[in-house]
Amino acid sequence: MSLLEVENLSLHIGALHALRGVSFSLDAGECRALVGESGCGKSLTAMSLLGLTPPGAVFHADAFTLAGEVLPAQGSPAWRRHRGADIAMIFQNPMTALNPTQTVGAQLAESFVLHRNLGRREAMTAAVALLERLAIPQPAQRAAQYPFEFSGGMLQRVMIAMAVACRPKLLIADEPTTALDVTVQAEVLTLLAELQREQGTALLFITHDLGVVAEIADSVTVMYAGESVESGSVAQIFNRTAHPYSAALRAAVPSLKQDRRPEGIVGSPPDLRREVTGCAFAPRCRQRMAICEDTVPEFQCGEGQRVRCWRWHPDHPLRWREAENG
Amino acid sequence: MLFYIARRLLFAAFTIWFIATATFFAMHAVPGDPLTQEKAMSPAVRAQLEARYGLDKPLDEQYLLFLGNMLRGDFGISFTQENRRVNDIIREHFPISATLGLAAILIALVGGVAAGSVAAHFRNRWPDRAVIFAVIAAISLPGFVIAAMAQLLIVRLNSAVDSTWLPVAGWGGVEHVWIPALVLGLGTMAYLSRLMRASMLEVLSSDYVLAARSRGIGPWRLFWGHQLRNAILPVVTELGPSIAAITTGGFVVELIFAIPGLGRYFVQAVQQLDYTVIMGTTVFYGAFLVIVVMLVDISYGIIDPRIRLTSGRRR
């Protein structure tokens, strides 16, 4: 049994069918990357894992459990026990994700007061110790400073400190390096990987940078139009790509080694305010077939690899697959 | 920071000088003088009075005399209230206006911040609509209408419970302060709650509030620790102008509630062209407002660390 089980997650926000079936699982100590283009529902998936979907959104999931325990309904006050304690999140932009009028130490200490029942002074000591663990120089002085006095990379470390403060079982990182300088990105990734190993945390890493995926993740879930279209290990996704969208994503990455131009994906994702029938990627797919008009179930296409594409139906001529994967 | 305060003080002095000069010449440009009365005055008596008050001197000389006296903090003797010094009038009656104004601004600030926060948290639901309705009503209705309605309400209330615990007018104990202060602060409260609603909405949709919620922080802690201080910043900047509005608006409320504040003397002096009282009260109010606005600007830096630290110490 995995630590986190998400099966067929669906979310309606008004007329918008933002999530149309997201399924993945995560083991303790595992790092799963959630990839896909902007607007495909990566961040909303993360928000629903914190119970923070927009008010009025209609939520449904066949399975939605952490360590065997069913997670509360969206917006329920019962979430407060989980947030920051069992499940924590690192936000994309550290410059805006910290309260500008509170010192960094006070914001860090708040988690300890809340989830560890520490007194104000003990919490502050714990906060300073944590900053020190995250290699922030002069942690005591730094704790007394305000966010605007920090550099971007330093602040992202503070954000990470806040997220791991109470040793959560599940850590969600929503594009944690996108807002940072390239030189700082590697540093932050190394730190995340290190903490994950040290605490045995499961890490859900949201990104659209496939280079980062190869570096940090154990497994990958590819999302398209509010749906998980392919899940598998990093090796499977990169070497035995099953879904045409995953393949197209990879082809869109420029390469220094191979002498080829990056290929864009023709067309644009469907409008999720209208009900999508059949495969959402079909209009942009080069391998489209007549059956793609019908709703696609998930098929097993390798050890632990799942794909939502008719080409993996057991009755589909096998040689087609062999030819593509070389 | 010290340099900043010094510069602000210099500007303040210039502003006060400008107010004094403009008022002085505008006042003398009005036809007639303080000695003009319905009853005819014999030329001899008039000449004697003019000499006594220095009105026989050329205008530029009068101006210099006035400036000199003002620098010494002396505004002279009232024309209409015999032998009463303007300084005494201010000293006796300003504390009453100040008490009323302070109570009004406190009510406006607390009420405005509370109403704006509630409206923002319940955006587009009934508490929000109720606040917006009240705000529009309070801004649209002139102060004297609200004052009269408040008095009517007090009379009805008193007769209903058969007591006089809430006085309709007059000045004395704490019970005399609340209703006039509420009436006086109502317009400002409405304005501040609109401001607070807008800035709170912005804070509510900010990343750091979402991040704080993602750490399991409950609604009350979130409000006091993360939302209020950030949302109140624009409200604090508006406090200076608000205090000006309340002080000047105080004249009407003082008149209706029969409160012996400074506002009444201010208005009467203009009607009777009481030169010394006009100058005294105008310069005094001007200086008061200039200093209050300056203090508000300084307090802004205390609430927002970004301003405090960038203007003060350097990293």
Question: Could you characterize what this model shows?
Answer:
- Chain A: InterPro entries: AAA+_ATPase, ABC_Ni/Peptide_Import, ABC_transporter-like_ATP-bd, ABC_transporter-like_CS, Oligopep_ABC_C, P-loop_NTPase.
- Chain A: Its main location: membrane.
- Chain A: Keywords: ATP-binding, Cell membrane, Membrane, Nucleotide-binding, Transport.
- Chain A: It is a peripheral membrane protein.
- Chain A: Residues 4-250 form the ABC transporter domain.
- The complex is a heterodimer of chains A (326) and B (315).
- By secondary structure, chain A is α/β, with parallel strands linked by helices.
- Chain A has a single domain, classed as P-loop containing nucleotide triphosphate hydrolases (Rossmann fold, 3-Layer(aba) Sandwich).
- Chain A has 10 helices and 13 strands.
- Chain A has helices at 42-48, 104-115, 120-133, 139-143, 152-164, 182-199, 210-216, 234-239, 244-251, 318-325; strands at 4-13, 16-26, 31-35, 58-60, 63-66, 69-70, 87-90, 170-174, 202-207, 219-224, 227-233, 299-302, 305-307.
- In chain A, strands 7-8-9-3-10-11-13-12 form an 8-stranded mixed beta sheet, sandwiched between helices. In chain A, strands 1, 2, 4, 5 and 6 form a 5-stranded antiparallel beta sheet that branches.
- In chain A, helix 6 links the parallel strand 8 (170-174) and strand 9.
- In chain A, helix 5 (152-164) runs parallel beside helix 6 (182-199).
- The longest helix of chain A is centred in the middle third of the chain and has 18 residues, at 182-199.
- Chain A is globular.
- In chain B, helix 4 crosses helix 7 and helix 7 runs antiparallel to helix 11.
- Chain B contains 14 helices and no strands.
- The radius of gyration of chain B is 24 Å and the shape is globular.
- Residues 311-315 of chain B have low confidence and may be disordered.
- Chain B has a domain at 92-311: Orthogonal Bundle (MetI-like fold).
- With 315 residues, chain B is an all-alpha fold.
- Classes of the chains: A alpha/beta (326), B mainly alpha (315).
- Chains A and B meet through helix 2 of A and helix 8, helix 9 and helix 14 of B.
